[in-house]
Amino acid sequence: MKKFVVILILICLCSACGFKDIDRRFFVVAIGIDKSEKKDAKYRLTLKLAVPGNNIDMGTAKFELITQDGNSITDCVRILKSKVDKELDFGHAKIVIFGQSLLKETIRETTDWLNRRRDIQLVSWLAAGSPSAEAVLGTEIAHERLPGNALLLSFGKTGVESGYIISEYLFDFYRKKKELGLDPIIPIIQASDKHYTINTSLVFDKERSKLALNMHETRLFNIMKGNLNKVEIATPYNDSKFFISVDNLRSKFRVYAPANQRPYAKIDIRMRGVIEETFTHLDANQLAAYEKAVEKTQSEAMSKLLEKLQKENLDPMGFGLNYRAHHFGKVEEEWHTWQALYPELEFHVNIQMKLEGIGVIK
């Protein structure tokens, strides 16, 4: 009986050793990692700490930024702990931002640290910061209710739904860095005067960023990947143009490698929407002609983008993974075969556009 009591007391004491009250913690809501400008350091770590307030009205979100340069993320965190009076809690960090200068080099070490930490959520959003991760985290948003909440609403589709925003989880990015036949792609957050702009993206190989996509290419990628339901499309027509609001979108693709023929990828996209704006006169009886114009211009633009990615030997669509899923054998043989096929791959983009009208104006 005495032994049981002693063991019970020891268990209670040990369980209390690692516990910190909530008022003795600093909650890290966002993490920024830049390339250090100091010669004797590799990284510059920025942590965005939430400062509790009495209310959550617009513009009352208070935060504190702390930064540290070091040769490893672990060293930066340990030194940062000497600059605050509370324990750093990473359990609420839902956004990780890399500086673009750092992404030009290998980020194997930084992503390894993020994935090994048991207190960092693997469902955190990943993004690139321009001009730096520190500048993005330091941007004060006038309407923000909670620190870092503006970015979470942008990526989680619980707030804005934009055809220009690509969302990438930390676990998914880490998986794509190791997956044969699928390359990572993350959004770029541009910080300016008290607001963010998120409409471009970066495509990676297995080590570093290789290609930046502009806003139109990012939108086209989202359509082909089927990452969204709502998007706006501009279509040239008779020396003018009109704009379509798409509210339903479906996309799928398959890679074919027939014997004695050139391999090809077939991308089928179905869209439905209405004409939202026009710079010319439109006739409600000519919907079929307008649909053909949309299908032709968008398929040409998508094929051009896919050829651009192919030229850089990048595959964020996952054509290689699709090929491997339908051709069984040893992993090394499948991968070598695909690497030989991809430069010769043709792209057949088939778009079916269904216009429901030209708007409410008759």
From TrEMBL:
It is found in: Membrane. GO terms for cellular component: membrane. Keywords: Germination, Lipoprotein, Membrane, Palmitate, Signal. Residues 202-359 form the Spore germination GerAC-like C-terminal domain. Its main location: membrane. Gene3D superfamilies: Nutrient germinant receptor protein C, domain 3. It is a lipid-anchor. InterPro entries: GerAC_N, Spore_GerAC-like, Spore_GerAC-like_C, Spore_GerAC_C_sf. The keyword Disulfide bond does not apply. Pfam families: Spore_GerAC, Spore_GerAC_N. Residues 20-190 form the Spore germination protein N-terminal domain. Belongs to the GerABKC lipoprotein family. This is Uncharacterized protein. It comes from Paenibacillus ferrarius.
